[in-house]
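re: ur msg from earlier - yeah i can do the acetyl coenzyme *A complex, just paste it... oh wait u already did. ok heres what im feeding in:
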Amino acid sequence: MSYEYLIFGQQNINFAPIQFKGMAEQAKIVLEGKEYEYPVITGTENEKAIDISKLRGETGYVTLDIGFKNTAATSSAITYLDGEQGLLRHRGYSIEDLADKASFTEVVYLILYGELPNEAQYKEFNAQLRDHTLVNEGLDSMFKAFPTGAHPMGQLMSMISALGLFYPKSLDPNREDDAVNRTVIRLLAKMPTICAMISKKGHGHPVVFPRNDLDYVTNYLNMTFGQVSMLDYEPDPVIVSAMNKLLILHADHEQNCSASTVRVVGSSQSNLYSSVASGVAALWGPLHGGANQKVLEMLEMIMEDGGDVQKYLDKAKDKSDNFRLMGFGHRVYKNFDPRARIIKKTCDEVLNKLGVNDPVLEIAKKLETAALTDPYFVERKLYPNVDFYSGIIYRAMGFPTEFFTVLFALGRLPGWIAQWQELRGEKQPISRPRQVYTGETARPFVFMKDRA
Ligand code: ACO
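and the outut:
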């Protein structure tokens, strides 16, 4: 059996049944003197996993893995990541190639539908996106009621959630017509408009309407930096190219915290809007996407405190101090984050082109050099991650610090959607982890008058 989505009435994309490269080996587990065997499965890049899906039924045992450090919660054909070697590929294409040669919308198509689009598909895809860029006036009224100064990520989460309320007929994720794909297109098309509305509100400026003659990235920049009174805003090609790259670098990152959240929520057959809104909520946290805001705040704090980088390295190493070096470390990358390398180069290009001489960048460079030679960071394999340099570029482009994580969300949207689509396409079961209970054992109820 295979699963299909209808795309633009042109072509059916197959969600093939899960194929593992190998299932020959067995892992043996001995429990209470009895031996059990579980299949060892091999992914297409030779990564191995023990399939323990029958463990509890056969033995009564569960596995304990707090924070999912060793648990593959799903198989997936979207993104391959090798943290030891610093590799990242979407649908087989390296992140270096995609960032260098593709447009963001090509990457969106690739991530969603499995293949790079041909010219006709690309044209049709962009036309579909352009058809849905406006947001309903009702949504705008709700948006206007948000308090000035509300955090952009809170606004984004609410707007995506509310967007679904305007399309009640397309909420059912199991509909077999083109409704699910229309929802996908709507979300992708309206996201730049919503993000730009949030920016404009932050500055107290009037909203700039989408211009459907522009490509996805230029249209977004126009809505963000253009003015109603200035119809001929032309973003610098270096900025368009940098924004394109930044969005591509954030497009998907396999089973990270927000993608897993989208999958968990989607597994209850919750609709795409609410699943994506929950992804935004997960991304907001400082240990995930919210780190890009925190990196800049940290660098500014170090600068204002006299620029003593060593003082902050020592604080990060001190276990009695809660301070962490934001933008350093990654759950999966234990060598380097390939996205950080690309971003660092882009950062130099943007700053040179704009003639920006940002003292914060000097602090960032000093901090990076010091951390990369410090035994604490070396032993723990803590390297700069994607968030370390992205904030400096966003700042040079003119985005306020609080807005940075919204830009991450704008880039990550196709990844969340693809993860949700894959889950639904494969008709995966509801996510429902087990636990090991550590609370009180059964005890009789005590009436209030008898309680100590
Ligand atoms: N600063 C100082 N010490 C750190 C840091 C850091 N940024 N990151 C990890 N460590 C230390 C931990 O204290 C721990 O030390 P220990 O072994 O002596 O106890 C060790 O390195 C391992 O860290 P964990 O927290 O167990 O690693 P985990 O995989 O759970 O966390 C995480 C990864 C959350 C990214 C972590 O490195 C961190 O908090 N980094 C800062 C926040 C950040 O930049 N987040 C963005 C991640 S990328 C993204 O989501 C887009």
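cool cool. Strands lie at 3-7, 11-15, 26-31, 34-42, 48-50, 79-82, 87-90, 93-94. ping me if u need the other ligands too
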